[in-house]
Amino acid sequence: MRFVVSQMELRTLVQLGIIGLTFFMLINASAVLVLAERKIMGFMQQRFGPYLVGPHGMLQPLADIVKLLFKEELRPKGADKWLFTLAPILSVTAAFAAFSTVPWGAETTFFGLLDEPVKLGVADVNVGVLVVFAITSMGVYGIVLAGWSSNSKYSLFGGLRASAQMISYELSYATALAAVVLLAGSLSLREVVDAQSGTWLGVIPSWFVFLQPVGFVIYMIAGVAETNRAPFDFPEAEQELVAGYNTEYSSVRFALFPQAEYINMATMSAVATDLYLGGWHGPFLPPEYGWIWFLLKVGAILFTYIWVRWTLPRYRYDQLMRFGWKWLFPAAVINLIVTAALVLYFNA
Amino acid sequence: MPETLIFYLLSGLAIGASALVIGQRNPMYSVLMLIASFGALAGLYIQLDAPFVAVAQIIIYAGAIMVLFLFVVMLLNAPKEDGADWDRTHPLRLPAVTRVGSMLAVLLVVQLAWALMEATGVGGPVAGEGNAEAVSSVRQLGRTLFTDYVFAFEATSILILVAMVGAVMLARREEERP
Questions:
Q1: Cβ-defined contact of B52 to A127 (cutoff 8 Å)
Q2: Domain-by-domain residue ranges, chain B?
Q3: Do A138 and B62 touch (CB under 8 A)?
């Protein structure tokens, strides 16, 4: 008997495949990023980095995961049983969910397999930008609860710092996003990307980074603070707080926190690519292969993240707060007002 | 009817979580239950075809205000309320005060029930021409807010500004104290 698949079933299968692929890529993003981070760090410090497991140490993440899986799971006596278990789950769930509305490729029919093109990306929501922002802002609960439920001073301080830091930088982050939304005239990430197709004067790609240089810088700085990475890694400042919010965690529960952090980094970079770097639009490649451009751009931003981490020393906490409230936020607001005025002037 | 099922599921979650907010002894759990309740409400907004309102609910209430609540609870390290050391002499726990309070609560329930009986159809006071679209599209929502409801909008913003100035004032006074 021949196995017949109707067009509609095929479509559903392809959609499910896209969702599965996105999930798979995100899981592996954390492994690849751990390796990339250690390799790049090694390069910057004039050493090799991991080199023993597999060729050139390529299988190091696998060894790390196996090691973490076989560690004993510890829970401190005074810890809050439920919240201690819930915190890492919340963290990693929010990290995965935030990617759900991020599109990563143009519409494609998969070489004529489908009658109508499908969109590459998990979901296309008309308020996509806000959904990403909303879910990212939920990620702070994982860290805060981990800090509180561990019943340890260091963890508590890590959690407190995380909540203060993330609230402060969310404002600048959202204000920078709003300027892009004004330019594109839409809250859908896909429409924002499509607003950046084409070129100016035939050479310069019409990406929003050229219209919003200040906004892009603000977005990147706030993004580093939101993902708790150096130079803003106060929730886990190891010289002061042992390991910060995840001090009391071990085994898989511990592994989920760095995983969430790396997935958040990937999401942050993917959103930056969609908002400022034209998403999958780029020269030379036909639109069906736009996702290659997307991956290249995300990779470039991730490299910058790692580069920044291993070249800049950590701020002091009061400096972080002063910078966030007295410099970054006013700059973001002025950027938004100027953008709004210009959009109004040119559209009128 | 999956939509009705989801509606009852979300409303049940919202009501249950809200009841647990005041039912919990541990303030930390109360805050978390409130977040769960807000999440369920956001789900209900999505069902009402108002994704923007739902996302705004998550960003503002669950994402920002509740983080501040959690921050305060953690910072004060508020202890669990134990049944044993309930302060019976507290002015708010005097029998007369409790009686007035429960009367007010009953009154509130009656009022709510009455309001629900009176309101027919969709929307209530907001119902009108083209309002379904006004809620679902961000553009329309913004236009409605800045034309029809501009007074309420500006009044709210002034109220929030006053609250902010007041909070700063209180914080400053604390600082000057020896």
A1: yes
A2: 1-80
A3: yes
Asked whether the beta carbons of residue A141 and residue B70 sit closer than 8 angstroms, the reply is: yes
Domain ranges of chain A: 74-99+123-347
Query: B1-80: what CATH class?
Result: mainly alpha
B55, B68, B71: residue with CB nearest A134: B55
The mean pLDDT of chain A is: 83
| pTM beyond cutoff 0.90 | no
Please answer whether residues A123 and A22 qualify as being in contact, where contact means their C-beta atoms are separated by less than 8 angstroms: no
Q: Phi and psi dihedrals of A299, rounded to 5?
A: -60, -40
Question: In chain B, which residues touch A (CB < 8 A)?
Answer: 28, 32, 35, 51-52, 55-56, 58-59, 62-64, 67-68, 70-71, 74-75, 138
Residues A60-73 have pLDDT tens digits of 888 888 888 888 88
| Contact between B71 and A133 using a beta-carbon 8 Å cutoff | no
- Convert the pLDDT of each residue in B3-38 to its tens digit: 888 888 888 999 999 888 888 777 888 888 888 899
Would you say the ipTM is above 0.85? no
Q: How many CA atoms lie within 13 A of A86 on its CB side?
A: 14
